[in-house]
UniProtKB/TrEMBL annotation, chain A:
Full protein name: NADH-quinone oxidoreductase subunit K
Subunit: NDH-1 is composed of 14 different subunits. Subunits NuoA, H, J, K, L, M, N constitute the membrane sector of the complex.
Membrane topology of the entry: Multi-pass membrane protein
Family per similarity comment: Belongs to the complex I subunit 4L family.
Organism, as annotated: Roseibacillus persicicus
Gene Ontology MF terms in the entry: NADH dehydrogenase (quinone) (non-electrogenic) activity; quinone binding
Automatic annotation (TrEMBL), chain B:
Bilayer topology term: Multi-pass membrane protein
Transmembrane segments: 26-48, 79-100, 107-126, 132-151, 172-193, 199-217, 238-262, 274-292, 299-318, 330-351, 363-385, 405-427, 448-467, 487-506, 544-564, 584-603
Domain NADH-Ubiquinone oxidoreductase (complex I) chain 5 N-terminal, first and last residues per copy: 67-110
Domain NADH:quinone oxidoreductase/Mrp antiporter transmembrane positions: 126-417
Tree of life domain: Bacteria
Protein name: NADH-quinone oxidoreductase subunit L
Origin organism lineage: Bacteria, Pseudomonadati, Verrucomicrobiota, Verrucomicrobiia, Verrucomicrobiales
Keywords attached to this entry: Membrane, Transmembrane, Transmembrane helix
GO biological process: ATP synthesis coupled electron transport; electron transport coupled proton transport
Organism: Roseibacillus persicicus
One Gene Ontology cellular component: membrane
């Protein structure tokens, strides 16, 4: 069985990113939008890991760890973002009793 | 040297009053009167001189050549005119001493009179057209100041403005005429003017008519006559001096200067004919209007118009001695018209500023001396034999009879009308019974007012006789008396007019002729003034509509409003992009990323 090639990883990552972006664009529920956002971050992580795995060192055959370190940073930042974002959404729901973005237009000029 | 003093004395007087003596009205009046008297004496000393060589100095030069000279010419015609100006001027000053005694702005009044004397002297003695034009404008200014002397009265302020504006129209043509004459002859000096050979009649005629425009404005000929009757809003002595005897005659004097310098033979017949007919029509129209006026000064104003029409007509006849005759009529007219105006001033003064003749009546018994002098003036104006007016009118009739029979008939008709309206004035004012309280209270005026009246009455009778006219009006061409057609016409006109006035107006309480449309047209000045008002109103409305369109549509709509609308539209456009919807932004961002990828990867 052929090992999975880089382009297939990237394809999956692209599809994942596209689904996430589409979700951010079309969905109206703010929590779903938030989830789609996380999906896009996951697509980016997948890309980084795939490149790291693909870019093996010619000296000792180990993968390039720079990409993996970056993935950890992204996961950390995403976790912090979720904490803040969900808190904001909860506060918003308490104030407005809705999570539908079409109803949240009071700051429109 | 005398001549320069003539010019400078009134100027010094005006300057002294205006700069320092305004508070001291009495002294101002005396200084002004003194300067007038001094110029009269100087003029008498100059009688008999005939200095053709101008006394001049260059005032402005251009490329080394003198461009504008200030120079005086003291020839017979100028001295004759100076005698009228200073003679009438002095008497008017004396009359004003009493007439304006209790006026609040007496100093300003006398300052204006002195300024006028200065400007008028400048016109008379000017040896070139440019200098004459400068002084021409100065008399316009002093006339404006004096008409508007009682400027708090709206009608006086309006009349002053009207006089000024109407004169602008004439002066514009005058200026064009002066420039044309300069272009043709290459000089502005009267004595050096020679018309080169080979000029077309069209150019010469146009030049003459342009110059004549100035006379039309200043001498109040149709169609610019409308300012003169309104100018009667000024004090009566001013009317006598400026608007009867001297300034309004300046136009005639100026034309006579041109004719003497260049010769009327040089100009094509149609141009002089135009002048003659303008004068004739003015004189007829003014005489008709005078028959239905009720203000004593207005009647005299229209009569002045009519007599000025005679003078202009005579200039335009351009036949034989017509220019001299015109100047001769100017000279006789000045005396008796000033007399009539000062007489009306005395009457108005005695009747507590009542000017309506139907509220006077029976003044002969109350003011005998004024009445007699007024009667003398009336007879002279009507051209009664043995008075000065007779001589000049006789010559006008004589000259027109031998050149243009239509003008002769016109002059005769106007002569009859003149007797008619002056008879009406005299009968209504002096005969019959007192028709108002003011006229009942009237009494003879002070001796200082009677003195000028008596002196003017003497001149009104004798100025036409050969023994007086020869030294005083040397250019006067004496025609021996002949009992021929002109004489009988003149007598017939007087009898007809006088009889008409007597039949219609003797012992009447109101005007029996005033209730028909023709009379109403005459009383309303043939609706010419109203027509002008409408014309001006219409013109200004059209102008205002055009400007309103430019302002409202072009400036406000396109330039200012257009810029605002442009930026507003741009704002609207970008406003659409600024929806505030994050999802739209992310869509756009996605599209943008796709575009970038497409452009970097697939497009080389």
């Amino acid at each position: 069985m052929n090992p999975v090639s880089l382009s297939e990883y990237l394809m999956v990552s692209g599809i994942l990113f596209a689904i996430g972006l589409a979700g951010v664009i079309v969905r109206r529920n703010i929590i779903v939008i938030f989830m789609c956002l996380e999906m896009m971050l996951a697509a980016a992580n997948l890309t980084l890991v795939a490149f790291s795995r693909h870019n093996l060192s010619t000296f000792d055959g180990l993968p390039d760890y720079n990409g993996q370190v970056l993935v950890f940073f992204i996961i950390t930042v995403a976790a912090a973002e979720v904490a803040v974002g969900l808190a904001i959404i909860v506060a918003l729901y308490r104030a407005r009793q809705t999570v539908n973005v079409d109803d949240l237009t009071s700051m429109r000029g | 040297m005398h001549a320069w003093l003539l010019l400078l004395l009134p100027l010094l007087s005006a300057a002294a009053i205006h700069l320092g003596l305004k508070k001291n009205a009495h002294l101002s009046a005396l200084i002004s009167t003194g300067s007038a008297l001094a110029t009269l004496i100087l003029t008498i000393l100059l009688l008999g001189n005939d200095i053709k060589e101008p006394l001049q100095f260059a005032w402005a030069s251009f490329g080394g050549e003198p461009l504008i000279n200030i120079g005086l010419v003291v020839d017979k015609m100028a001295i004759n005119m100076m005698l009228v100006v200073t003679g009438v001027g002095t008497l008017v000053h004396v009359f004003s001493l009493a007439y304006m005694a209790s006026d609040e702005a007496k100093a300003r009044y006398f300052c204006g009179l002195s300024l006028f004397m200065f400007s008028m002297t400048g016109i008379v003695l000017a040896d070139n057209f440019l200098m004459m034009f400068i002084f021409w404008e100065l008399v316009g200014l002093s006339s404006y100041l004096l008409i508007g002397h009682w400027f708090t009265k709206a009608s006086a302020a309006d009349a002053a403005k009207k006089a000024f504006c109407v004169n602008r129209i004439g002066d514009w043509g005058f200026m064009v005429g002066i420039l044309m004459l300069w272009a043709i002859t290459g000089t502005l000096t009267f004595g050096e003017m020679n018309l080169p050979e080979g000029l077309t009649a069209g150019i010469l005629g146009a030049t003459l008519l342009c110059i004549f425009c100035g006379a039309v404005g200043k001498s109040a000929q149709a169609p610019l006559h409308v300012w003169l009757p309104d100018a009667m809003e000024g004090p009566t002595p001013v009317s006598a001096l400026i608007h009867a005897a001297t300034m309004v005659a300046a136009g005639v004097y100026m034309m006579a200067r041109v004719f003497v310098s260049v010769g009327f033979e040089a100009f094509p017949q149609w141009s002089t004919d135009t002048i003659a007919w303008v004068g004739g029509i003015t004189s007829l129209m003014a005489a008709l209007m005078a028959t239905q006026q009720n203000d004593i000064k207005k009647i005299l104003a229209y009569s002045t118009l009519s007599q000025l029409g005679y003078m202009v007509l005579m200039l335009g006849v351009a036949h034989g001695h017509s220019t001299e005759i015109s100047m001769f009529h100017l000279y006789t007219h000045a005396w008796f018209k000033a007399l009539l105006f000062l007489g009306s001033g005395a009457i108005i003064y005695a009747c507590h500023h009542e000017q309506n003749i139907w509220k006077m009546g029976g003044l002969f018994k109350k003011m005998p001396i004024t009445a007699i002098t007024f009667a003398v003036g009336t007879l002279a104006l009507a051209g009664f034999p043995m008075t000065s007016g007779f001589f000049s009118k006789e010559q006008i009739l004589h000259e027109t009879l031998h050149s243009n029979i239509y003008l002769f008939v016109l002059v005769a008709v106007v002569a009859a009308m003149t007797t008619f309206y002056m008879g009406r004035l005299f009968i209504v004012v002096f005969l019959g019974e007192n028709r108002s309280k003011h006229s009942k209270d009237a009494a003879e005026v002070k001796p200082i007012m009677l003195l000028p009246l008596v002196l003017l009455a003497v001149m009104a009778v004798f100025s036409g006789y050969k023994f007086v006219a020869e030294p005083l009006a040397p250019q006067f061409h004496h025609v021996p008396f002949e009992a021929k057609t002109p004489f009988f016409t003149s007598i017939g006109a007087i009898l007809l007019g006088a009889a008409g006035a007597f039949v219609f107006y003797f012992n009447k309480k109101s005007d029996p002729l005033s209730n028909n449309p023709v009379s109403k047209a005459f009383a309303n000045r043939l609706y010419i003034d109203k027509g002008y008002d409408q014309l001006v109103k219409y013109g200004i409305n059209v102008k205002a509509a055009v400007i309103d369109f430019l302002d409202g549509f072009i400036i406000n709509g396109l330039i200012v409003g257009g810029l605002a609308r442009c930026s507003a539209a741009l704002g609207q456009l970008f406003n659409r992009a600024q929806s505030g919807s994050l999802q739209t932004y992310s869509l756009l961002m996605g599209v943008g990323v796709l575009l970038v990828i497409y452009l970097t990867v697939f497009v080389k």
